[in-house]
Amino acid sequence: MSSIAPRSRALLLTVALLVGLLGAQITFANDAPNWRLTDATGQEYAFHEEHPKGPSIVLFWATWCPYCKALMPHLQSMLEEYQGEKPLRVFAISYREDGDPLKYLERQGYSFIAFPEGGDVPASYNVSGTPGVFVVDESGRIVLNLYQVTSRMAEDPAWDSLNNRQKAARRAPYWGARIREALDTLYGAR
What we know:
Helices cover 43% and strands 16% of the residues. It is of the alpha/beta class. Strand 6 (132-136) and strand 7 form a beta hairpin. The protein is globular.
């Protein structure tokens, strides 16, 4: 760098600094927010301390949400499938709930780690509706954000005539497949 003029050297250093800063911002934007909540059994979880045991799914849901109800059996089957040395964990965080989420989970036989009170956690993930689903790898990076998964379901001519429960029944398998693809990548295709 000694053959570069001082002015050019300063410009290169400025560009390098900006690239470094932008890279840090991009990396930060993909990191899963840390949170601390108490689950239904009274155990406190600190997300960044708990999830390194393996990949995690962070689910924001409500008992009144037909899309959540349609997707949750898919998540349960994944939870059962991805066991072993680094088991999958599903953190089910209630969002805008007006029912009894614990009773619903128990009645359905789901073995998610349930948080009946989500506090500020949904806002930290920019949750705007249910279901909000985030697949997080062992390093704490979000590898799938369900809000970014689009489908062509609305192109179906019958789509507009379907009620929410029917739409949910059609979307859930598609969403489940995208979540499973992300997990397969993390676990190395099984």
